[in-house]
Structures are given as structure tokens and as C-alpha cells.
Amino acid sequence: MIETSPLHTEIKRLIKASGPMPVWRYMELCLMHPEHGYYISRDPLGREGDFTTAPEVSQMFGELLGLWAASIWKATGSPQQFRLIELGPGRGTMMSDALRALRVLPPLYQTISVHLVEVNPVLREKQKATLTGLRNVTWHDNFDDVPEGPSVIFANEYFDVLPIHQMVRRESGWHERVIELDEEENFVYGTAADPTPGFELLLPPLVRAAPPGAIFEWRPNTEIMAIARRIRDQHGAAVIIDYGHVRSDVGDTFQAIARHSFADPLKTPGLADITAHVDFDALARSAEAVGARVHGPVTQGEFLQRLGIETRALTLMQKAAPDVSEDIASGLKRLTGGGRGGMGSLFKVLGVSDQSTPALAGISDEHTGDKTGGA
Ligand SMILES: C[S@@+](CC[C@H](N)C(=O)[O-])C[C@H]1O[C@@H](n2cnc3c(N)ncnc32)[C@H](O)[C@@H]1O
């Protein structure tokens, strides 16, 4: 028998009552259960928490995204009202750094209203503390509640926490992957008895030919379509930054992180961050399907370099004490570099605009194109 948590007991009860539970439902409960969900009950970020995100690595990340937003404001004709919307803003660090960078542009800074879409009450309090005294900030439970108008939408490490379906290829077709109980009442993976009718018709051609045993992951496209529709109709741009792959493919990326290490997603319900890689190909196709224009993806390293992160690092280092200077250099390496712990190539950046915007800074610079080369 594995170590139990209150959520483990609750999920076991649900499986006994209703049978095997699809992976998406398990993930949803682990993250969003009204009482024990991981994102309902805690601040998971930073050295003391379970993982560190790019804005927590270095102020340069948020500053450059602030300047990126300024380029979108200009490209949309410098509107009198401009919204900065962030989905899943963590501790509010990125927004705070972005706003600080934007203070140097008073004509834009005066037009900004900030909208944070956040479900986590603990993080909302942190965001309030971080952003107190800055421009009008409003919190929303849902993206659809954000008032209309031209905007920039930020989503950093947001899509990876949205629940995924896992489908397993069998001779009989594609079956939903489920979680069930073994004889000792541990959670184990299984597959639904019957295939999902017609599922293969929804798959990209390469994935349709996958061999038995292959796993394909997909997320509902509700969120990306809502973002794309808003940008299509009300102008501005969205930037989605996350770990993931450039082309839809088979593979099992369902994972748990606790205390900065990988954990078993089935052994830590409600106690670890449970995520899966983002399929940027699927996001791009969904955004295009509603008539938005897609830019990239490019790697995070390439995006930040094109926005001038190296120059910004040098400027900060010139004024810094030697130990702070070392921190800036290691932040730069972590945000832009590859290898162990490096976010530069694992993370991708996708831009969404309306059809009238031909290029987005850092993403669709014509001379560089897409150099990600797959995930
Ligand atoms: C991995 S954290 C990323 C935080 C932040 N963007 C950063 O980079 O530091 C995920 C964020 O999304 C929020 N979140 C998770 N599920 C959400 C949902 N369904 N709606 C809105 N926010 C959500 C979490 O509370 C958290 O703020």
C-alpha cells in the first residue's frame, strides 16, 4: 500500500464507486479538487517550493516580456486603453517586472489595466502583495470574464497544468488511458475496455500509424480557441511559453514534480505538481482554425536572445556586486541555455495575433524562421 494523502483516499473511494478513472479526471482532481487540489491549497513556487519558473529565475524574463507588450501596443496603433492579461500568474513576479520595465514609456503605462486570471487563493494573496500600488489590477476566475479591448495575453507555464487525455493504441483502436486499483489498492494504469469510436480520424496522419502500445496525449482546445478568438476580434497578441513539442507525436509526458525532483504521478495525488508537455502543433492548429494568425514556435532561448537578454544582462551586471553578477549570469544561462536544468530549448514560445499583424517581435523575425527542429 502506498503512502496516502486525503486526496488519495478520496480518489480511491471514487474509483471503487464508479470504476476506473480517466487520466484527465485524475489530473483534474489532483490539481483542482476544491479542498485538496494542488493548485487550490498552496504556493508551489521557488526554492522552498516544488519548482522554479522563468520569472522566478530572473527579473530579465518579465522585463523583456513587458517590452514585448510595448511592441504590440505600438503595432496595434497605440490604443488609449490597453489590457495586460496574465493566465496563471504565479506570484505576480512576471507582471511586476513587466510593469517596472513599462514605466519608462508613460504614454503606454498610463493606458494599462492589468487582469489576472487565477484560481489559487494562496497565490492570489501573493499576487496582491507583489502588485499592490501598481496600475489597476483586477482578478478573474475565468478568462471569459476579462472585459473587452485590445490586449496582450501572457501564459507562462499555464497550459502544461491543464488536464490531458491519454489515449493508448491497441489492435482494436485507441482506448482512453485510465487509473484503476490493483489488488493492494495502489493506483495503476489501465485502458478503457472499449476503443473511443472514430478517434483515429482526429489524429495527425503520422500519429494514426503509431504501433500498438503507443500513447497519444491531447487537451481540449477550449482555452486556446478563446484566446485566439479574442485576439482575432479585439486585437493585440498572445504569447504562450511552456515546455513541449513542436510537432504532434506519440509519447508519455505525464509527470509529477515535488521538491524540485520528479515523482510518480500516481503516488502523490494533491501533493505534487502534475503536468504534461504542451503540444504546440495542436495549439497552433486550433488558433488558426478560428482565424487567428500564429507565429513560431521558436525556442525560449532564441526568443529571449532576439529580445536582447544578453545586453540587458550586461547592463545589470555592470552595476551589480560580484555575487549578484554571478546570479545574473547563471539566470541568463538557465533561461537561454540547453542541457540539464536549462530552459532555453525545452521551452517554446508561440505567438497569436490577428491577421493584420505580419510579425511579432522575437518570434516571427523573418530572417531566422523556425529553428526548433522538433522536441
Ligand atoms: C506552473 S504555475 C506558473 C505560474 C507563473 N505563470 C510563473 O511562470 O511563475 C501555474 C499557474 O496557473 C494557475 N492555474 C492553474 N490552473 C488554473 C486554471 N484552471 N485557471 C487559472 N489559473 C490556473 C496556478 O495557480 C499558477 O498560478
TrEMBL record:
InterPro entries: NDUFAF7, NDUFAF7_sf, SAM-dependent_MTases_sf. Its EC number is 2.1.1.-. The keyword Amino-acid biosynthesis does not apply. Pfam families: Methyltransf_28. Signal peptide: none annotated. It comes from the Bacteria. GO terms for biological process: methylation. The keyword Methyltransferase applies. Keywords: Methyltransferase, Transferase. It comes from Bradyrhizobium ontarionense. This is SAM-dependent methyltransferase. It is an enzyme of class 2 (transferase). GO terms for molecular function: methyltransferase activity.
